[in-house]
Structure formats: C-alpha cells, structure tokens
Amino acid sequence: MLRKQSILNRCAPRRAAARRSAVLSCCGLALLIPLLTSAYVPPHPGAPAPGEHVGEHESGWPIEHPSLSLRTEVAPAVARPGDPITQTAVVGNTGDTTLAGVVVTLDSGPCHEVLGHLRPGATETASCSGTAPAHGRVSARAVGMSHGGLPVVERATAEIAESPPEPEPPAPKRPSVALEILPARAGSVPVPVRNTSTVPLLGVEVTGEPPACRRTLGTLEPGRSVTYTCRAAPGETVRLAVSARSLAGEVTAADALVVPPLPPAPPAAEPSPPAERPPPAARPVPPPLDETRVELADSGGPRESPAQTAGFIAVLGVLVMMVSVGALSSATRAGR
C-alpha cells in the first residue's frame, strides 16, 4: 500500500508540467499567427465619423508592395561586333518598401554590381565596360528582396546599331594602258589604244609585227582612246605591244595577238557528168567467099578436083617412104 502511493506521488508533478507546456505552446502559437501572415484582414470598421476620410486610421497588419524599375543604355549606340562599348543600367525602387541585397548584372562584361539597400523612390546607377556582341543586343538584370522576404526581379535590354563598313581606300594613281586588235575588214586591222588610268600617259608607242602596224601616239589623257588601222595580209600574224610612262616615271605596257583569217576558198565546181560515148560503128561484114574451082590448064587429060589431087599426093608420099625403109633394111643385112 505504501509503495503504490509513492508511485502516484512521483507521477503527479510530471502531469502538471505537461499541462503547463501545452498551455504555453497554444498561447505562443496564437501570438505568432499575425506575425507569420503577411496580409492580416482587420474586422470591418464602423461607419466613418463626419469629416474623417477612409484610410487615415487603418488598423491591422501593413501590406508590402515591392517593385523595381530598370533601364539600360549603351555608348556608343552604333558599333560593330567586337568593338568596345560601355553599358549603363539605372535601377529604381518604385515600391513602398525598402529593398535589401539589390544586385545588377550587365552581360556586356559580364559585370555584377552589388547596390545593397535601396529605399522607396531611390535610384542607383551601375556601368560595365565590354565588347559589342554579334547579335547586337545587350541585357541587364536587377534582383532585390523586401523586408518581408518577397523577391523582386526586373530585366531590360538595349539594341546596338551596326555601323556601316568603312569605305575602301581609293585606288592608287598608277598608269595603265590597254591595247586591242579588232577583226580585219577588207584587209585593214583596227587597233584601239586606251588610257585606263587616272593619270596622263607620255611616250605612248605601239611596236610589233607587221611593221605597217607600228605607231607613235605621244601623249594620251586619262580615259581617252585612239584607234588606227593598218594593213595585214590574210593569214598574217599581227603581234603588237604598247608601252607608256606616267609623269612620275612609272612604266606600263600591254600586248595583243591576232591572226586574220584566210578568205574562204571558192566553192569547187561540180564535176560534169561524163559524155556518153557513141556506140561503136558496125564492122563491115566481109562478102562470102565463092568456092571457085581452080581449073588446070588445058592438058588434054581428064580434070580432077583439088581434094582428089591432095589425096593422091599423100598416097604417093607413103609409098616413097616404104620404099626408102625397105632399101635401108636391105643395105643393113648386106653389111652383116
């Protein structure tokens, strides 16, 4: 019994401390709620008194309206990519509360400027030296934070006009001359010589082949030209060169070559068709031979035809041959 009572006595202080902590926690939370909320709505006031304007005596927690203004400029306003420029930014606090930790970033450098605190209505200026970008635009960014912890961000841009390219330097005043040989006309070859520079040319002389095309022209003013003609045979090569000098003594020259074409050959005459040969003359037909019989002179005997006479002579020859052979055979036997 004594042990049970001692346990209850020990637990009683702990329960009382827990109750006191719970009460204090509830009271502290009730006091912190208005501080944690940024907009506290007060109870509806009664009707304003006569002569009192609404808003003169506001009750409740104040509401913040943080705001920033930002403007950026570039000097010079006309530049080419890579040229040095200076970017300037003007930051203003257009809200109704002080802004802390105001920082401006300019991308021409880039540069980061810390302006710190900025009161309502105040302005600050930041500048940065850099180079003009290729796209011709620079930007700026400003950030800050109100007393109640609300962040504020503002951005601005500026265009850079590209400057026109620098004009090319004028060409030096050097002497130059041009020579041309035009196609021949009726055996005459036109040869124009022109001063293509902006300075007078002295001692203009044309040399080459054929000798008939050589000339001494003397002085030739800027932009002026002289054309002369010379004779050249068809197919003869015309090779000319011109030389001149300026007042400063600089020498210039040019040459040209042309071969006048040969005149076209006359068209060949078409061959005439071969003349028809007359038909060969008919050979005369010899008259037919008459079979005449040769009659022997009167011999008093019977007359025979030539065929019979020939046969008789042949038989006689055979007989003579046989007789000769027989005589030879007899002589041979007798010699043995």
Largest sheet: 4 strands, antiparallel
- What is the H-and-E element order? HEEEEEEEEEEEEEEH
Q: Biggest sheet: strands side by side, in what order?
A: 4-3-6-7
According to CATH, what is the class of the domain at 68-159? Mainly Beta
- Given the structure, what is the number of helices? 2
- CATH topology heading of the domain at 68-159: Immunoglobulin-like
Query: What's the average pLDDT?
Result: 75
Low-confidence stretches are 1-5, 34-47, 51-60
CA-atom Rg in angstroms: 71 Å
Structure classification: alpha+beta
Question: Considering the protein shown, what is the CATH homologous superfamily of the domain at 68-159?
Answer: Immunoglobulins
Helix content: 10-25%
State which percent range the strand residues make up. 25-35%
Shape: elongated
Tell me the CATH architecture of the domain at 68-159: Sandwich
Q: Total strand count, please?
A: 14
> What is the distance, rounded to the nearest whole angstrom, between the alpha carbons of the first and last residues?
214 Å
Any overview of this molecule?
This protein has two helices and 14 strands; from the N terminus they run H-E-E-E-E-E-E-E-E-E-E-E-E-E-E-H. Among the domains are: 68-159, Immunoglobulin-like, CATH 2.60.40; 177-258, Immunoglobulins (Immunoglobulin-like), CATH 2.60.40. The chain is α+β, with helices and mostly antiparallel strands. The chain has a four-stranded antiparallel beta sheet, with no helix packed on it. The protein has a four-stranded antiparallel beta sheet with strand order 11-10-13-14, with no helix packed on it. It has a three-stranded antiparallel beta sheet with strand order 1-2-5, with no helix packed on it. The termini are far apart. The protein is elongated. Residues 1-5, 34-47 and 51-60 have low confidence and may be disordered.
